[in-house]
Amino acid sequence: MNNIRQVQALNKRELENAIPPEASWHADYRDTAYIYIGGLPFDLSEGDIVTIFSQYGEPVHINLMRDKETGKSRGFAFLKYEDQRSTDLAVDNLGGATVLGRVLRVDHTRYKRRDEEEET
């Protein structure tokens, strides 16, 4: 929860100080269209996650991390948007959101897709 508050405070300071987009902390992640999503309810499917996050852009890849033995969700995922700018919207608007009683942590990431993973 502290990370979510830190991001929200940073966004608030940038807004209050009229920081231009190229000077925003988001600019450090202009080279990646992936986000990390943590705190996911364990019974959400990839389709559910795409439905939630598609309100900020077109998802083209999702990797919902699952337990290797049981196949059950581990509660976090990596999602790639078609347009990198969608990551800023998702991080700012869905970080700290509550879904089925769980608080989401949404952040930029430099996720590297494995060879066997296909884009959706």
UniProtKB/TrEMBL annotation:
Domain RRM: 33-111
GO cellular component, one term: catalytic step 2 spliceosome
Pfam families hit by this protein: RRM_1
GO BP term, pick one: mRNA splicing, via spliceosome
SMART domains per record: RRM
RNA-binding recorded as keyword: yes
InterPro entries associated with the record: Nucleotide-bd_a/b_plait_sf, RBD_domain_sf, RNA_proc/Spliceosome_comp, RRM_dom, RRM_Ist3-like
Listed GO MF terms: RNA binding
Keyword field: RNA-binding
PROSITE patterns: RRM (PS50102)
PANTHER family in the record: RNA-BINDING MOTIF PROTEIN, X-LINKED 2
The protein's name in its UniProt record: RRM domain-containing protein
